[in-house]
Amino acid sequence: MKDLEIKKYIDLEKKRQREHVELIASENYVSKDVLEATGSILTNKYAEGYPNKRYYDGCEFVDKIENLAIKRLKKLFNVKYVNVQPHSGTQANMAAFLAILKPGDKILGLSLNSGGHLTHGHKVNFSGILYQSDFYEVDNNGLLNYEKILKKAKKFKPNLIICGYSAYSRIIDFSKFRKIADIVGSKLMADIAHIAGLVITGHHPSPIPYADIITSTTHKTLRGARGGIIMTNNKKIAEKMNKYLFPGTQGGPLMHSIAGKAIAFGEALKPEFKYYIDQVIKNAKIFSNEFISLGCKIISNGTDNHLLTIDVKTSYGLTGKEASKILQKNNITINKNTIPNDTEKPSITSGIRLGTAAMTTRGFKEKHFKKLANLIHLSLKNKKDIRINISNLINSL
Ligand SMILES: Cc1ncc(COP(=O)(O)O)c(C=O)c1O
Fold this sequence. Notes:
CATH topology of the largest domain: Aspartate Aminotransferase, domain 2
Number of helices: 16
Radius of gyration: 21 Å
Number of domains: 2
Strand order of the largest sheet: 4-10-9-8-7-5-6
Structural class: alpha/beta
Largest sheet: 7 strands, mixed
Oligomer: single chain
Bound molecules: pyridoxal-5'-phosphate
């Protein structure tokens, strides 16, 4: 690379990614093939439109790539219609809303404090600006309470109910959400940005038979190039989702990203991916159990998926911001996270969210997460610098 200023920072970031314990639940390490595709000459190509219906010439090869991404994604989720062009999970959600709602319609999502996402109706986001939003919460045990959600839905009468979250560690019962949506005459959207990898391998029930429209990111447990996808089994909704993605909300697709997604979909179709997700979940369970045995308060008292949220206020008398600062000094990267009924602002928080997807890709097994829980506990309890070296951690066990 000739630009030495940028190269310097890429090299430093590479070193950081190698030397830090990465526990951000929405991150992962992609394969060399995915990296190669996203850094390829495909970034040069304009391809507004869809395969065989482009507004630019010279699309014969990128058409093949997008068609492969589409074919693989349909197979992965056993779904009829997909769109692989969203630049991000947020773009996918925006096009999905436009496909099934009118501006000003009512949407009901999980609150940010309870583990929802900004795009599910928060007032600072397009979803809370263009639509009338209200929220359901998890109960005192940190669990979804379907009776309370039904009550809320009956009162609010939403046009759309959103399920699928950013920081919820338990199984989501999509069939119950379908029933609630049918009772109140609402559409149902599942945003499986976090759990997509687990849905593919059967470690989490699939929303495909229940939701009118399904969105996801491709870079979390799915371990692909950054981006989004939209899926549905409904032909009319599919036509609208395509129309509202392009030309509705995006211009030319990022063909290098679509190639990176296609490669990741191919990788996720292989049996090895199932072993990977199996290990991700085993690791999350032991991680969470170890924190509990050390006396920590974990939201919902455990996990069924790849993430867990620790109430660091109750457990250590720290805010999420303080805890994340202490851990960062120890080369452990996490994110502060609000917890149910949080009294702190989202920029401070009372919790931290930890995920096992990235370090499982690096080869961490149960014994590493058990040790890691003890190291994190030690540093948060004593607010002290314990300096963790990943290779030492791997080699020492
Ligand atoms: C549930 C959920 N939906 C949507 C998104 C948005 O994805 P992106 O950051 O790619 O816009 C996220 C990202 O964290 C998420 O957790």
